[in-house]
Amino acid sequence: MLNVIKQDDTVKNNIINIAKDNDDAIDTMLDVLDEVENEDFINFLIKLDIKRVYGKDIWVGYNDVCEKDAAKFYDAVINEKKFMFDYIRRNGNDNAE
Questions:
Q1: What does the DSSP 8-state code read for residue 62?
Q2: Which terminus of the chain faces fewer neighbouring Cβ atoms within 10 Å, N or C?
Q3: Per-residue model confidence as pLDDT tens digits over 36-68
């Protein structure tokens, strides 16, 4: 079930919603958007929303686990890499499932 992503909304609004006004998370989303096609990016946002990864937790996964590598972060989210989501649960805001 989706919580903040609306498939009929703009990419910009979905980025703002999932980033929860966290500048680092917004920058992360823009870095990933530069790496992938628009349709793939929407699927990426949906995966984050299903896993309840928002705001600071996005930054924690991108920065701490994926070493600010947008392609690596995208891959970890799309392929639901357990190690990343476990790390976010331990070190983020406890939003991730």
A1: I
A2: N
A3: 988 899 999 999 999 999 999 999 999 999 999
